[in-house]
Amino acid sequence: MSVRYLTCLILMLGSLQAAAMSDEALRFKVFLNERFLGHHNFLVSETMAGHQVASDASFEFKLMFITAFRYQHSVREQWQGDCLSAVESTTQENRNRYAVEAIRAGDDLNVRSRVNDTAFAGMLSGCIGSFAYWNPRIVLEARQLLNVQTGEYVNVRSDYLGEEQITAGGKAITARKFRLQARDLNIDLWYSASNEWLGLESTESGRTLRYERI
Questions:
Q1: Pairing of strands 153-168, 144-146
Q2: For residue 125, which of 95, 84, 72, 81 has the smallest C-alpha distance?
Q3: pTM of the entire predicted model
Q4: How far, CA to CA in Å, does 62 sit from each of 29, 34, 67, 68, 209?
């Protein structure tokens, strides 16, 4: 990665953070089946140039006092409208390390990613979105989304499944339920009538990952 590329990314993310006008914190407890894993927190800041999102997750699963799974994930995203203009992420999943850096240049988003010691680079054209669950307009209307952990650009589709009662923030709430499909993943999402993100659930190999809004 060039020094100029990295400098531009740092300056864009740093200066826009300082210009934040308002913040919204979204905090979730995360469970694997019914076992508590950890927390995933989001801070959505409105800036003069758009939205900046800071996302941090920390999960740990132990069996007989031995750590079977550990996950640390940190992402910083800058948005102009519904389009990504910059991304910086780092992830540690057990022994695997991931990193993604992206920055918009004109009509293109230049994406550089790394999985352990293997690096990838690519260019995506047009308005690119990520799995921005905090904004249903982005995540539910898209046909492709950027995975900011791996740098992959994946096909997605969403379907409305109706209303149901869920618990969020310690209260029973009537929420709208959607299913987002991406490759082998089925991700259920719940939103309030005012489009506030309330919960997430994904089942794979008989195990259910569940986000409960605090």
A1: antiparallel
A2: 84
A3: 0.86
A4: 17, 14, 4, 5, 16
